[in-house]
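Why do we care about 3D structure at all? Because function follows from shape, and shape follows, mostly, from sequence. That is the central idea of this module. The next example makes it concrete: a single protein chain, its amino acid sequence, and then its structure expressed as tokens.
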Amino acid sequence: MLTKTSEVGIQTLIYLSVLDSEDPISPKRIAQELGQSPSYLSKITGQLVKANLLVAHRGVHGGVTLARTPDAISFLDIVQALQGLITGNYCAQTEHHPEPVCAFHMAMREVHTVTIDTLSKWSVSDLIANPVSKVPVRTGARCKMEALRDIVAKKGA
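And the structure:
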């Protein structure tokens, strides 16, 4: 459901939140820390700036900072900034029949509602409390937030 871009965007916002620096952090540094391409990370941070989730700072010591507190940034904000609006219009409706026109449409409306509700209730600050798994993930699987493990460990030390 989430694209790699959204996952990296979430990692970026967690990274900036854990760092808790008032100084701007360059996308290049974030990319190095998260093991991502600098150009890819610049694209992501640019989209997050346009969505008012990050603030861009120009100049020699430029970079990005959080535009809001971590508890004021929901997963819905991030996903819609990086993937576009989550819409759920699956069947043609007319003004005479504004309700869903088939069972599939009703099911998809329910999926849409649950998705929006879930993404809205989770914030970046919710992840900061437990950003990486403390137990091994099942064999062969990788935690999507693994790139943050060393960063979180350094900050806690």
